[in-house]
Amino acid sequence: MGNLLEHMGIEKDRLHFSWISSAEATKFVDVVTKVSEAVNALGPNHKLVKNAG
Amino acid sequence: MNTYTKKIRELASNLLKEGKVDLVIGFKEGTVPMATAPGIARTPEEADGFVWDANCSLNLTNYLTNKKEKIGIIAKGCDSRSIVNHIIENKISRDQLHIIGVPCTGMVDKNKIRGLFEDEITEFKEEGDVIRVKTGAKELTIDKQEYLRGNCRTCMHRNPVIHDDLVAEPVVEQKLADPFKDVKAIEAMDADEKWNHFENLLSGCIRCYACRNACPLCYCPTCFVDEANPQWVGKGQDPTDIRTFHFLRAYHCAGRCTDCGACEDACPMDIKVRDFTRKLVKDSFEIYGWEAGLTLDQRPPLDTFKPEDPDDFIK
Ligand code: SF4
Ligand code: SF4
User: Measured between alpha carbons, how far is B198 from A5 in angstroms, rounded to an integer?
Assistant: First the structure.
């Protein structure tokens, strides 16, 4: 799924997959930090966005 | 009459005469040149209407879904793989079927041939690899191999993988140095180029859903695009909705698509929708060593779990 999204032009770093158990608080924080950094680096997304109206 | 047509009529008519099947699904002459229409024969006489040429490009597996009768069906290499899919997915059982396999030498790209002329084609004659096409204004002789559909050019399973009869000796399979050149060309683009490539590709889409309807894999009683509650995707011509439809339609075919090309054939706007599914065909092959519909003994990769499945995308 990620591969096909990337194939049609959605940047790879916008979509992340992870498996975190409810006991893995530090991993959770870690992943969220990395995801936000990666997405921030890409800037706002304009693709697959539908404007209301 | 070519030998394939003759043999198909003979086999189909015998099956019906002997009562081995209730009906045979094949191709009949269309209403204009270069058109064939799916047709059903229930009597030996009706089997005389069957034809075969390089325009039999639709995938007849589409008509097998949930049928209860005993059915004879004509199948090219790719169609036979779709039949395997159907059996694996419990849409029909093997013992309901009598498969008349056609060793295939490729189907032609009708739009490419039409593009050679300014006026309507009035005659299409195929003799081996030579095709004679006539319009009111001129007549051209073309080499069939030069005018094959995209998927026939990269096909490596021209001979049916499952069959009860064959209408001719198996044909030689193509050997390709790189069957995924087209996919790699898109992969080499940067994100924005990819985005624009698909934006241009889909700019003509009128959302008629012919591509979905022609695909034997798309048999859900209610397709996600038709659902109203919840409405998964908008119904209009918004590019985001068009893109969502195509992305999800393709993804639903992951690990199942046999690259039969019926979707592209059916499109009235000549949109190369296989640009989506080809990526999935390539990934299935590279990640799981999987080609859809080759065997009845193995589950497709996306409906099984194996400990050795690659998982490096999960962080
Ligand atoms: S058949 Fe062509 S025009 Fe119709 S929905 Fe599919 S891509 Fe769009
Ligand atoms: S998606 Fe297109 S090429 Fe793939 S199986 Fe369906 S109709 Fe055939």
Answer: 11
Residue B309 confidence class, pLDDT cut points 50, 70, 90: confident
B205, B237, B243, B275, best to mutate for ligand 1 pocket (most atoms within 8 Å of CB) = B205
**Distance (Å, whole) CA B49 – CA B70:** 20
Q: Two tokens at B206?
A: 């009128």
Least distant ligand from the CA of B83: 2
Which of these, B139, B167, B152, lies nearest to B50 by C-alpha position? B167
Domain ranges in chain B are 3-107+148-303, 108-147
Place of tokens 């992969």: B187
pTM: 0.92
Q: Residue B142: is it exposed, middle or buried by C-beta count within 10 angstroms (0-12/13-18/19+)?
A: middle
Residue whose tokens read 């879904």: B65
pLDDT band at B43 (very low <50, low <70, confident <90, very high): very high
Cβ atoms of residues B100 and B8 within 8 Å:
yes
Q: Where are the beta strands (DSSP E) in B11-108?
A: 23-29, 36-41, 71-75, 97-101
Which are the contacts of B283, defined by CB distance < 8 A and separation ≥ 6?
A3, A4, B254
Mutate to test the pocket of ligand 2, among B81, B209, B247, B258 (most ligand atoms within 8 A of CB): B258
Instruction: List pLDDT tens digits, range B213-250.
Output: 999 999 999 999 999 999 999 999 999 999 999 999 99
Q: Number of helices (H) and strands (E), helices first, in chain A?
A: 2, 0
